[in-house]
Design goal:
This protein is α+β, with helices and mostly antiparallel strands. It folds into two domains: 204 residues, Distorted Sandwich (Beta-galactosidase, Chain A, domain 5); 380 residues, Glycosyltransferase (Alpha/alpha barrel). Helices cover 33% and strands 22% of the residues. It contains 15 helices and 28 strands. It has a 15-stranded antiparallel β-sheet that branches. A three-stranded antiparallel β-sheet has the order 26-27-28. Helix 4 packs antiparallel against helix 5 and helix 6 packs antiparallel against helix 7. The longest helix is centred in the C-terminal third of the chain and has 20 residues. The chain is globular. It starts with 8 loop residues before the first strand and ends with a helix. It catalyses: alpha,alpha-trehalose + H2O = alpha-D-glucose + beta-D-glucose. InterPro entries: 6-hairpin_glycosidase_sf, 6hp_glycosidase-like_sf, GH15-like, Trehalase-like_N. This is Trehalase. Belongs to the glycosyl hydrolase 15 family. Its cofactor is phosphate.
């Protein structure tokens, strides 16, 4: 099998997540956190890098699969000549330790099923020692330990450095496999009842999904996107990772492979808006609180991303023993972009906290003082070039989107002071800086000949992030400069009906410092739909939205990018930014009329 990214479904427990292929194999799982070492890394290598397959003997891919409605519980079915069997996969809400539950159920006939468990800790590099204890198979290596049990018991044996089981199920029979991880120096955690865990998971997810206020077109896709965002949330802190994976390529065989298992500030306003508008105030408050903790400290040290608990050190490392998905090397962990200067994040933080205050989220005593400190730093720092929203590695420039977000930072401060004058601050100074930034962007970042804003000062290139200009209020949607920018971006960056971030085909390698190209960027394509709607072309916007929803795979998941030539998803997966785009565009196009 040569799997595609869209062949995978997601399960998770809001602290980590697993990817399961159409062949019934868990090919990616990091424990105990999203950013921990993987114990199944076949996704980026082969079977010897760790996986766990349960499927009828002699089969390749499943007949059908689907999530149970409004849940993160996955049902995968195989129809064979001997009968039909279903495997139900879930990661229950965590108690002391993470569990992966896989329940095999006979639907008809009598089917022989095989389980092959090949644990490899530390991204496939460490083979554990296996032993038996108390009816379990126990794997231990260094700090990691994992226990495998079945209920009712089935025979297992070791062969080819893996744990195997072979058994039959008839109609109505169920056999549950439970894999539990814990630190090797601790005692085995309490056993869970896998069948009760299934019932509770279904009930809990459906109760959560019912809180969604959106009731417009494509509601199923919106709810699935919200469930995916919830699954990508690290529950102990409220942080939301950009994706569950690292190093899934933006171009098969290329080097644009990055670790996305961290929390980006660039996502903050869009995430907060999606959660609040859809009815998830508790999750929005948790994300806002994560944001406040993460950015606390010297404003000059503000980072573009943090770990799930707010960690700052995310050193980038290559894993040479992994060949990469579709031979796309290098495989990386950590992310060197953490050290970049991106001025737009100051605007994102100010915008997010302004939105939170305006939406009625409880304020924190130190919140405004922190915002004022950020502004004091930005008063002089905004004049610097930076690496920009897309984390380019080809040198700093005066990116127009970054300057627009600087304007947003001062604008939100002014608006907050106008509504809450008792907070105190340099209102007149902020107004003056807001106006100065606005003038400079319109003078230096606008190409009058082509009637479009540009990627950076003096550039002729374009940037899809400029589509956010009307959304953030820098200019009104009916301004001719906005309409011209939307049209120019659609013409220059359009590809197969969707949108690239910027042009990597010619000057792009100079801009981002990397060889090769990438696919169309899903979130940017949603931004185009938003911009078309705001500039009065709602019918075109809705048609584009319909096509974007059609990019979701069979279980409703989106990656970072899409290749319209080969018709395949690209980049890390599932991608929070893409699903946030889906939710926000649905709310923009249909929410006013049809949301509850």
């Amino acid at each position: 099998m040569n799997p595609r990214i869209e062949d995978y479904a997601l399960i998770g427990d809001e602290q980590s997540a697993a990817l399961i292929g159409r062949d019934g194999s868990v090919d990616w799982l990091c424990l105990p956190r999203f950013d921990s070492g993987a114990c199944f890394a076949r996704l980026l290598g082969d079977e010897n890098h760790g996986h766990w397959r349960i499927a009828p003997e002699g089969t390749d891919t499943c007949t059908r699969r689907a999530y149970r409605s409004d849940t993160l519980v996955l049902d995968t079915e195989w129809e064979t000549s001997d009968g039909t069997v279903r495997v139900t996969d879930l990661m229950p809400q965590r108690g002391r330790a993470p569990d992966v539950v896989r329940i095999v159920e006979g639907i008809s006939g009598r089917v022989t099923v095989r389980s092959t468990l090949r644990l490899r800790f530390d991204y496939g590099s460490v083979m554990p020692w296996m032993r038996r204890a108390d009816g379990h198979r126990v794997a231990v290596a260094g700090p990691d330990s994992a226990w495998l049990r079945t209920e009712p018991a089935v025979d297992t044996w070791g062969e080819d450095h893996a744990t195997h089981a072979r058994f039959t199920v008839e109609e109505g029979e169920r056999i549950a496999f439970v894999l539990t991880w814990h630190p090797s120096h601790e005692k085995r955690p309490p056993l869970i009842d896998p069948y009760e865990a299934l019932e509770h998971s279904v009930t809990d997810w459906r109760r959560w999904a019912r809180r969604c206020r959106y009731d417009g077109p494509h509601r199923d896709a919106v709810v699935r996107s919200l469930i995916t965002l919830k699954a990508l949330t690290y529950a102990p802190t409220g942080g939301i990772v950009a994706a569950a994976t690292t190093s899934l390529p933006e171009q098969p065989g290329g080097v644009r492979n990055w670790d996305y298992r961290y929390c980006w500030l660039r996502d903050s306003t869009l995430t907060l808006g999606a959660l609040l508008t859809a009815g998830y105030q508790e999750e929005a408050e948790a994300w806002r609180d994560w944001l406040l903790r993460a950015v606390a400290g010297d404003p000059a040290d503000l980072q573009i991303m943090y770990g799930v608990a707010g960690e700052r050190r995310l050193p980038e490392t290559e894993l040479p023993w992994l060949p990469g998905f579709a031979d796309s090397a290098p495989v990386r962990t950590g992310n060197g972009a953490v050290d970049q200067l991106q001025l737009d994040v100051y605007g994102e933080v100010m915008d997010s906290l302004s939105l939170a205050r305006g939406s009625g989220l409880p304020t924190k005593p130190h919140m405004w003082a922190m915002q004022r400190a950020l502004l004091r730093y930005l008063e002089t720092a905004w004049r610097q070039p930076d690496e920009g929203l897309w984390e380019v590695r080809g040198g700093r420039r005066h990116f127009v989107h970054s300057k627009v977000m600087v304007w947003v930072a001062f604008d939100r401060a002014v608006r907050t002071m106008e509504r809450h004058p008792r907070l105190g601050g340099d209102l007149e100074g902020w107004r003056a800086l807001r106006d100065e930034v606005h003038r400079e962007v319109c003078e230096k970042g606008f190409d009058r000949e082509r009637n479009t804003f540009t990627q950076y000062y003096g550039s002729r290139g374009l940037d899809a992030a400029l589509l956010l200009i009307p959304r953030v209020g820098f200019l009104p949607p009916d301004d001719p400069r906005v309409v011209g920018t939307v049209d120019a971006i659609r013409d220059d960056l359009g590809h197969g009906g969707f949108l690239r971030r910027y042009d990597t085909r010619d000057a792009g390698s100079e801009i981002d410092g990397l060889p090769g190209a990438e696919g169309t960027f899903v979130a940017c394509s949603f931004w185009l739909a938003d911009a078309l709607h705001r500039t009065g072309r709602t019918e075109e916007a809705r048609e584009l939205f319909d096509r974007l929803v059609g990019l979701c795979n069979d279980v409703g998941l989106l990656a970072e990018e899409y290749d319209p030539v080969d018709g395949r998803l690209l980049g890390n997966y599932p991608q929070a930014f893409s699903h946030i785009g889906l939710v926000n565009t649905a709310l923009t196009l249909f929410g006013d009329d049809e949301a509850g």
